[in-house]
Design a protein that fits this description.
heteropentamer; A mainly alpha (about 350); B mainly alpha (about 120); C mainly alpha (about 625); D mainly alpha (about 170); E mainly alpha (about 100); C: about 625 residues; mainly alpha; two-stranded antiparallel ribbon; 2 strands; D: Four Helix Bundle (Hemerythrin (Met), subunit A); 7 helices
Chain lengths: ~350, ~120, ~625, ~170, ~100
C-alpha cells in the first residue's frame, strides 16, 4: 500500500461518507414536506424557499441546545450510547457499491468504499452491532421508561435480524456470491424483452421479507413503537438532550439510506440504468467517467424513490402493538423467509439440477 | 485482507464525526443545571418509589426472546455458506438440497415448539 | 462279675441322684428319702460283697476304660478295689446309708427334699469314685465332685445369704487346695511319666536313683491339696462355716467322709511320702499345730455344731500327725473310728437342734437327758469314745497315734507332748459339751421332743459301731487280739517299725487314759455343779476367753491379708488402669481418624472455584511432567 | 504493515480481555467483552479468514453478548468489589501457570512437522470453506441442527417462562 | 524462561495464551456467575484464535470448520449457562457463586 493509493482510497471513502451524511438533512426536509403533504398542510416553508434551509436550522438548534446529564447516570455508557448506534450504521456504508468504476489519475477506482467478497455478510454482522447502542443507552440512563423502551426496541431489532439473514441467504443463493458488486454486475441488461434485469423478478418474496424487516431494523414508523411519544415518553433516548439526541436521528436516517441502498443493490439492479447495458452506455457516452456519473445518478434516483416510499409509509400506516410486532417477526416473516429459501432451492434444482 | 483497509479508514472518519458532535455540544451548549433537570424524567410524576431503584423488575420474556434469537440466529447463519455453494452443487446432484431440507425441518420443529408454548407473546 | 459289682457300687448312687433330682422331683421327703436310702443301701451291699471277695480271695479288682490318649499321656478311667478301698468304701457307704435314713426324718418340713437327696446321692458316688480311683486324675474327678457336692449341700438353704456365702467360701478354699493338688499331679506326671498308683509305686520302690528334691516338691503340693480338703491350718476356716448346711450333711461330709479324703490321699501316696522326710516332718508339725489350735478354740464355742466342727479339725490334725510320722495304717484306723463316733455326735446334735426347733446355743440347752433318752445314751458312748476311755474305739486309735508320734520313723517327744495336750483339751471340751447339754435344768424356751425311729435307729447303729470298731485294730502290746487292720493294710501301705523310746506301749496307754480322765474332771468341776453360770467361769480366768471366742481372728486376718488388698487392686484397675490405659489405647486410633477427617473437611469447602483451582494446579503439574521431556 | 496491525490489535484484544476480568460492574465487563470479540474479529481478518471473522461478529458479538447484556440488565446487580485481595495471590499464580502452560502447549505444537509450511494463504476464502463444510463435514452440520433443536427446547424449559413470570410478579 | 528459538511463535500465540490465562484467571476469581460465563467465552475464543492461526498457516481449512462448530457450541453454552444462572438467581436471589455451596463433603 503505497501512499498515493492510500490517499485515493481515503478521499474516496470521505466523499462517499459525506454523501451519505448529506442524506440526513435532505431526509429531514423530505420527511417534513412529505408528512405535510400527506396531512394536507404546507410544512416548513419559512426558512429559505420551500423551507429548504429548515434542516440546517434544526441542526444548528441541536448544536446550541443544553445537554443535561442526569445525576445517577452511568457516565461512560450514557455518553457512548448514541455513538454506539452511529458507528455501525456509518460502517455499513462501506459495503454499498455506489457505482461501477472511474479512471482517474491513470487508476481504475471502484466507486464503493471497499469491495470485499463478504460484503452482504459484513452488512449483516455490522447491522447486528446496532443493538448495543440501544441497550447501553437505555440501561445507562437509569430511567424506568428508558430501560423498558430499550428492552422492547432491542428485542424488536434482534427479532427482525433473522428475517434479514434469511432473505440475504436467499439472495446469496440466487446470485451465488456474497459480494454486492458481483450481484449488481449480474443485474445488467434486459430480461424477457421488456423487463429490466433486476433481482426482484426472481425473488419477489425475498424482497418483501427484506423490505418489511428493514423497516423494523430502522425503527421506522410502523415499528417505531419503542420510542413512540404516546406510550413510552420517548423510549430509550428520553434522557438525551441536544446533539446526542440528534445523533440518534442521524443514525436512524443513515440506516434508512443504507437499507434502501441494500434493497436497490439486491433487487433493483444497483447502479445499472434499467434496460440499458453498460457497454451500450460506454459506446453512447464515450468516456467511462461519464458513464460512472450516470450510474451514480441512477443509483441515487432509485434510493430517493425508496426513501420517499419509506416516508410515505411512515405517515400512513398506523403503529403496531408490540406483541403484534413480535408475532409478525416470528410468526410471519421468519417462516416466510424459510419457505422462500426452500421453494427457491427446489425451483433452482428443477431448472438447473441434473 | 487489503479490501478491509478502507473500512478502517471509514471507521476513523465515523469516530471523528462522533467525537466532533460530542465536543461541539459540550462547548456550545449552555450549562444551567437545576435539580429537577438532573433528576430522571418521570413526566412530572413525583414518585419516590422510582427514585431509588430505577431498574425495572425483570420481564423474563425479554430474556427468552434473546435466547431464542441467539439460537435461530446461529441456524440462520448456517444458511449463508449453504446458499453460497448450493448453486454449483446442483451440478453434482441434490444432496445439498436434501441436507438443507432436513436442516430446515428441525428449524421448523423448533419454531413450532416455540409457538406452541407461546413463549413469545411478549405483552 | 466283680468288675460289674465295682461299677454298680459307684453308679447306683449316681442313678439315684439323677432319678431324684431330675426325673421324679417328688415333694414328699418320705418317697425321695426312701429312694435315696435304698440306692445308698444297695451300694453298701455291693461294697460288702466286694470286701468279702477281697478278704476271701485277696483279688484286686481292676476296671479300665479308654479316656484320653494325648501325646505321652495315656489316661484311662481306672477303678481299683484293693485294701485301702475296702476300708474307705465300707466307711463311706455304711455311714452314708445310715445318714440317708436319718435325714428322711430330718427333712420332713422341707419344700424341696428331692434336691437334698439328689445331692447326697451324688456326693456318695463322687466319694466312691475318689476312693476307688486307680490313678490320680480319676481320683481328682472324684475330688472335684465331692467339693461340688459340699458346696451345694452347705448352701442348700441358699435363700439365706450367709449360708450361700459359707458354701461359696468352702468351695473357694477347696479350690485353692485343688490347685496345689493339680500342680502335684503335673509334677508327678513330669517325674514318672505316668499317674497310675501301681506303676508309680513300682518306680519309687524299685529304682533308688530318683531325684528326691523333685519328689519332695510333688509330695508337698499333694499335701497342699490334702490341707485344702481336710481343713488343715491355713485352709481350715471353711469347715466351721460349713456348719451352715443341714446337720446330716455336716455329719456325712464334714465329719466322716469328705474331710478324710486328704488323709486317704496321703495314705494312698504313702510310698512317696515315705521317701520324702522333710515333707513328712512338715505334715506332722502342721497336723499337731492344727490339733492343738482347733482344740483350744473348741473349748470356748457356744454353738453346738461349731464345737463339733472344731473337734473334727483337731481330730484330722491327729490323723495327719500319724501320716507325718509314717504310721499310715494307724491314721486310716483313726479315720474309721472317728467316722463312727463323729457322725454319731453330729446326728445327735441334729436331733437336738431338730427337737429344739433350730436352737443351737449350748448355753440355752441343759437337762436334755430327760427329753432325749436315746440320744443321751448314744451321745455318752460317743463322748467316751472321743475322749479315749479304754474299751471304746477312740481309745485304741488315738493312743496308737499318740504312741506312733512318739516312736514313728519321723516322730519325736515334742509331737507326743503336743498330742497329749491336744487330747487333754479334747476331753475337756467334749465333756463340757456333754455336761452343758444333758445336765442341769433346761434353760431354753422351746419344748423339746425327740425325733421318730427313723432318726433314732441310725444313732443306735452308730453307737454300736463306735463301741465295737476299736477291737479291729488292737495294738500289739495288749496281745489280746491280733491287729486285723494292720494285716489288711500293711501290704498296700508301707509299714513301720517302732523306734525305742522312753515309754513302752502299755505305759503310753496308761498316760493317755490319765490325761483323758483329768480333762473330764476339770470339765466336771467347772460345768457339772451349776451349768447356768458355767460359761462365765472357766476360761475367763485364763483371760483368753475372748481370743478363743473369736477364733484367733483368723477370718479377720484372711480378710485383711487377702480380701481387702484384692478389692483395692480391682478398684484401682477399674478406675485407673482400665479407662486410662486400655480405653485410651483403643480409642486413640479412632480419635486420630476423626482428627484426620476434620483436617480434610477443609478441602470440601464447597466453593466450586476452589475445586477448580485445585484441579488446575493438579492438571498443570501432570502436564508439566508429561511435556517436560518434549519441550524444555 | 501487517505486523504492525497484528501488534496493535493483539494488545487491544488483551487489554479488552483484561477489562472483562477486572471491571467492577458486569455491564462494563460485557462491554469490554464486545471490544475483545471485535478485536478478535479483526485478528481473524488479519489472518485472512474474512468469513470466520464476520461469523464471529455476527454470532458472538451480535447474539451471545447481547444475551449476556440482557441477563445483566435483568438481574439489577449492585456494584461488586471484584478482586478480594486475599484470593489474588494464588490465583495470580494460577494465571501465570496457565499462560506458561499454554505456551508449553504451543511450543509442542510448533515442533510438530506440518507447521513448517510457509504462511501460505491457501484456500481460505469463503467459497472453499463452505464447499468443505458441506462436503466432508455434512454430517456434523446435520447433527448440529438436531443439537440446536435440543438447545431451543432446553433453553425454553430452563427459562420456564410462565413460572418465572409468576415469580417475578410476586 | 522460554528459549530463544520461538521465531515461529507469532503475536497471536501470545494473545491466545493471554486470553486463555485471563479467562481462567477471571473464571477462578470472579464471584459473579455471569462474568464467569463471559470468561468461559474468552477461553473458547482463545482456542478459536489458535485454531484459525494454525489452520491458516498450515493451509488446511478444517480448522475453520472447527471454529464454526465451536462458535455454535459457545452459543449453546451461553444459552444454557445463563438459563441455569437465572434459575439459581430465582432460587437464591443472588448470582454470587459463593452462595451456592451445597456441593460439599
Amino acid at each position: 500500500m503505497d501512499l498515493t493509493e492510500l490517499s485515493i482510497v481515503s478521499i474516496k471513502t470521505l466523499l462517499i461518507y459525506v454523501a451519505f451524511i448529506q442524506v440526513v438533512p435532505v431526509m429531514i426536509w423530505v420527511e417534513r414536506k412529505g408528512a405535510a403533504l400527506i396531512q394536507d398542510r404546507p410544512g416548513p416553508n419559512r426558512v429559505g424557499p420551500f423551507g429548504v434551509f429548515q434542516p440546517i436550522a434544526d441542526a444548528l438548534k441541536f448544536l446550541f441546545k443544553e445537554d443535561p446529564v442526569p445525576k445517577e447516570v452511568n457516565r461512560l455508557l450514557y455518553n457512548l450510547g448514541p455513538f454506539l448506534i452511529l458507528l455501525p450504521s456509518s460502517l455499513i456504508i462501506a459495503a454499498i457499491p455506489v457505482g461501477d468504476r472511474v479512471e482517474l489519475f491513470g487508476r481504475d477506482i471502484l466507486l464503493q468504499v471497499a469491495d470485499i467478497d463478504v460484503a452482504l455478510l459484513f452488512f449483516l454482522s455490522i447491522s447486528s452491532l446496532g443493538v448495543y447502542g440501544i441497550l447501553f443507552g437505555g440501561w445507562a440512563s437509569n430511567n424506568k421508561y428508558s430501560l423498558l423502551g430499550a428492552m422492547r426496541s432491542s428485542s424488536q431489532v434482534i427479532s427482525y435480524e433473522i428475517p434479514i439473514a434469511l432473505s440475504a441467504a436467499n439472495a446469496v443463493m440466487f446470485y451465488g456470491t456474497f459480494s454486492l458488486r458481483q450481484m449488481v454486475m449480474q443485474q445488467e441488461g434486459v430480461l424477457l424483452g421488456f423487463l429490466p434485469n433486476w433481482g426482484i423478478w426472481f425473488q419477489p418474496i425475498g424482497f418483501l421479507v427484506l423490505f418489511v424487516a428493514l423497516f423494523a431494523e430502522t425503527n421506522r414508523l410502523p415499528f417505531d413503537l419503542p420510542e413512540s411519544e404516546a406510550e413510552l415518553v420517548g423510549g430509550y433516548h428520553t434522557e438525551y438532550g441536544s446533539m446526542k439526541f440528534a445523533a440518534f436521528f442521524m443514525a436512524e436516517y443513515i440506516n434508512l439510506a443504507t437499507a434502501s441502498a441494500l434493497l436497490v443493490t439486491l433487487f433493483f439492479g444497483g447502479w445499472h440504468v434499467p434496460w440499458l447495458s453498460d457497454s451500450w452506455l460506454l459506446l453512447k457516452l464515450g468516456s467511462q467517467n461519464v458513464v460512472a456519473l450516470v450510474q451514480v445518478a441512477m443509483f441515487l434516483a432509485k434510493i430517493s424513490v425508496l426513501l420517499c416510499i419509506f416516508v410515505w409509509v411512515r405517515w400512513t400506516v398506523p403503529r403496531f402493538r408490540f406483541d403484534q410486532l413480535m408475532h409478525l417477526a416470528w410468526g410471519n416473516l421468519i417462516p416466510l423467509g424459510l419457505a422462500n429459501i426452500i421453494v427457491t432451492a427446489i425451483l433452482l434444482y428443477f431448472f438447473e439440477g441434473r | 485482507m487489503e479490501a478491509f483497509l478502507p473500512i478502517g479508514i471509514l471507521f476513523l472518519f465515523a469516530v471523528m464525526l462522533c467525537a466532533g458532535i460530542y465536543v461541539l455540544t459540550n462547548l456550545l451548549g449552555p450549562r444551567i443545571f437545576q435539580k429537577n433537570k438532573l433528576s430522571t424524567y418521570e413526566c412530572g410524576v413525583q414518585n419516590p418509589l422510582f427514585e431509588t431503584n430505577a431498574r425495572l423488575p425483570f420481564k423474563f420474556r425479554f430474556y427468552l426472546v434473546a435466547v431464542i434469537f441467539l439460537l435461530f440466529d446461529v441456524e440462520g447463519a448456517f444458511f449463508l455458506p449453504w446458499a453460497l455453494v448450493y448453486r454449483e452443487s446442483l451440478q453434482l446432484g441434490a444432496n445439498l438440497l436434501i441436507a438443507m431440507l432436513v436442516f430446515s425441518v428441525f428449524i421448523i420443529l423448533g419454531l413450532i415448539y416455540v409457538f406452541q408454548n407461546n413463549y413469545l407473546n411478549v405483552d | 462279675m466283680m468288675e460289674f459289682l465295682l461299677l454298680s457300687m459307684i453308679l447306683i448312687p449316681l442313678l439315684g441322684s439323677i432319678l431324684n433330682g431330675l426325673l421324679l422331683r417328688s415333694g414328699s421327703p418320705a418317697r425321695t428319702g426312701t429312694l435315696a436310702s435304698t440306692a445308698a443301701g444297695l451300694s453298701f451291699l455291693a461294697a460288702l460283697l466286694l470286701c468279702w471277695n477281697y478278704l476271701s480271695t485277696g483279688q484286686i479288682v481292676n476296671v479300665n476304660f479308654e479316656w484320653l490318649r494325648v501325646g505321652g499321656l495315656n489316661l484311662a478311667w481306672g477303678f481299683r478295689f484293693d485294701a485301702i478301698t475296702v476300708l474307705m468304701s465300707l466307711v463311706v457307704t455304711g455311714i452314708g446309708t445310715l445318714i440317708h435314713i436319718f435325714s428322711i426324718g430330718y427333712m420332713d418340713e422341707e419344700p424341696t427334699p428331692y434336691r437334698f437327696f439328689a445331692y447326697l446321692n451324688l456326693f456318695l458316688s463322687a466319694m466312691l469314685i475318689l476312693v476307688t480311683g486307680a490313678n490320680l486324675p480319676v481320683m481328682f474327678v472324684g475330688w472335684e465332685g465331692v467339693g461340688l457336692c459340699s458346696y451345694l449341700l452347705i448352701g442348700y438353704w441358699y435363700e439365706d445369704i450367709k449360708k450361700a456365702d459359707a458354701g461359696m467360701k468352702a468351695f473357694v478354699i477347696n479350690r485353692i487346695g485343688d490347685a496345689g493338688f493339680l500342680i502335684g499331679i503335673f509334677m508327678l506326671f513330669q517325674i514318672f511319666g505316668t499317674v497310675d498308683f501301681e506303676s508309680m509305686k513300682l518306680i519309687v520302690d524299685g529304682s533308688g536313683s530318683l531325684n528326691v528334691r523333685w519328689l519332695q516338691f510333688a509330695a508337698f503340693f499333694l499335701f497342699v491339696g490334702a490341707m485344702g480338703k481336710s481343713a488343715q491350718i491355713p485352709l481350715f476356716t471353711w469347715l466351721p462355716d460349713a456348719m451352715a448346711g443341714p446337720t446330716p450333711v455336716s455329719a456325712l461330709i464334714h465329719a466322716a467322709t469328705m474331710v478324710t479324703a486328704g488323709v486317704y490321699l496321703v495314705a494312698r501316696m504313702g510310698f512317696l511320702f515315705r521317701v520324702s522326710p522333710d515333707v513328712s516332718h512338715f505334715v506332722a508339725t502342721i497336723g499337731c499345730a492344727t490339733a492343738l489350735f482347733a482344740a483350744s478354740i473348741a473349748t470356748a464355742q457356744r454353738d453346738i455344731k461349731k464345737i463339733l466342727a472344731y473337734s473334727t479339725v483337731s481330730q484330722l490334725g491327729f490323723m495327719f500327725v500319724a501320716l507325718g510320722v509314717g504310721a499310715y495304717s494307724v491314721a486310716l484306723f483313726h479315720v474309721m473310728t472317728h467316722a463312727f463316733f463323729k457322725a454319731l455326735l453330729f446326728l445327735a446334735a441334729g436331733t437336738i437342734i431338730h427337737g429344739l426347733h433350730g436352737e443351737q446355743d449350748v448355753c440355752k440347752m441343759g437337762g436334755l437327758r430327760k427329753h432325749f433318752p436315746v440320744t443321751f445314751i448314744t451321745t455318752s458312748i460317743a463322748v467316751a469314745a472321743i475322749c479315749g476311755l479304754p474299751p471304746l474305739s477312740g481309745f485304741f486309735s488315738k493312743d496308737a497315734i499318740v504312741f506312733a508320734a512318739l516312736t514313728g520313723p519321723y516322730g519325736g517327744p515334742y509331737l507326743w507332748a503336743g498330742l497329749s495336750l491336744a487330747s487333754l483339751l479334747t476331753a475337756f471340751y467334749m465333756s463340757r459339751f456333754y455336761f452343758l447339754v444333758f445336765f442341769g435344768e433346761y434353760r431354753g424356751n422351746a419344748h423339746p421332743h425327740e425325733g421318730g425311729w427313723a432318726m433314732k435307729l441310725p444313732l443306735m447303729d452308730l453307737a454300736i459301731g463306735s463301741a465295737v470298731v476299736g477291737f479291729l485294730g488292737m495294738p500289739h502290746g495288749l496281745h489280746v487280739l491280733p491287729n486285723y487292720l494292720d494285716q489288711l493294710l500293711v501290704p498296700t501301705v508301707p509299714g513301720w517299725e517302732e523306734a525305742h523310746a522312753f515309754l513302752t506301749e502299755i505305759q503310753s496307754m496308761v498316760v493317755a487314759v490319765a490325761v483323758a480322765l483329768t480333762g473330764i474332771a476339770i470339765a466336771a468341776f467347772f460345768y457339772l455343779p451349776n451349768p447356768a453360770r458355767s460359761d462365765k467361769a472357766a476360761p475367763k480366768l485364763l483371760a483368753i476367753d475372748t481370743i478363743l471366742k473369736n477364733k484367733y481372728w483368723v477370718d479377720e486376718l484372711y480378710e485383711v491379708v487377702f480380701v481387702v488388698p484384692f478389692r483395692f487392686l480391682s478398684g484401682v484397675a477399674a478406675r485407673i488402669i482400665d479407662p486410662r490405659v486400655i480405653d485410651a489405647a483403643v480409642l486413640f486410633p479412632s480419635r486420630l481418624a476423626r482428627a484426620g477427617g476434620t483436617l480434610l473437611t477443609f478441602i470440601q469447602s464447597g466453593s466450586s472455584q476452589f475445586y477448580l483451582w485445585i484441579m488446575l494446579t493438579g492438571g498443570l503439574l501432570v502436564l508439566w511432567q508429561a511435556l517436560k521431556g518434549l519441550i524444555v | 504493515m501487517r505486523e504492525v496491525f497484528f501488534m496493535i490489535f493483539s494488545i487491544f484484544t488483551v487489554l479488552a480481555a483484561l477489562g472483562v476480568v477486572v471491571s467492577r460492574h458486569a455491564i462494563f465487563s460485557a462491554f469490554s467483552l464486545v471490544l475483545a470479540f471485535f478485536g478478535l474479529a479483526i485478528l481473524y481478518l488479519l489472518w485472512g479468514t474474512s468469513f470466520v471473522s464476520m461469523l464471529q461478529i455476527l454470532i458472538y458479538t451480535g447474539a451471545i453478548v447481547v444475551l449476556f447484556v440482557f441477563v445483566v440488565m435483568l438481574l439489577d446487580l449492585k456494584k461488586e468489589e471484584t478482586l478480594d485481595s486475599a484470593k489474588t495471590g494464588p490465583l495470580v499464580m494460577a494465571g501465570l501457570s496457565v499462560w506458561f502452560f499454554s505456551l508449553l502447549i504451543l511450543r509442542a505444537l510448533n515442533r510438530a512437522t506440518y507447521f513448517k509450511s510457509t504462511n501460505v494463504e491457501a484456500a481460505s476464502d469463503i467459497k472453499s470453506i463452505s464447499t468443505l463444510l458441506f462436503s466432508k463435514y455434512l454430517w456434523g452440520f446435520e447433527i448440529l441442527s438436531v443439537f440446536l433443536l435440543a438447545l431451543i427446547v432446553s433453553a425454553c424449559v430452563l427459562a420456564r417462562a410462565e413460572y418465572m413470570e409468576r415469580k417475578a410478579d410476586q | 524462561m522460554i528459549p530463544a528459538s520461538v521465531q515461529i511463535l507469532h503475536w497471536s500465540h501470545y494473545v491466545a495464551a493471554c486470553l486463555f490465562a485471563l479467562g481462567m484467571f477471571g473464571f477462578l476469581i470472579r464471584k459473579n456467575a455471569i462474568v464467569v460465563l463471559m470468561c468461559i467465552e474468552l477461553m473458547l475464543n482463545a482456542v478459536n484464535l489458535i485454531l484459525v492461526e494454525v489452520s491458516m498457516r498450515s493451509g488446511h481449512p478444517e480448522g475453520l470448520i472447527f471454529v464454526i462448530f465451536i462458535i455454535t457450541v459457545a452459543a449453546a453454552e451461553a444459552a444454557v449457562g445463563l438459563g441455569i444462572i437465572l434459575n439459581l438467581y430465582r432460587a437464591k436471589g443472588t448470582v454470587n457463586i459463593d452462595a451456592f455451596r451445597e456441593l460439599q463433603g
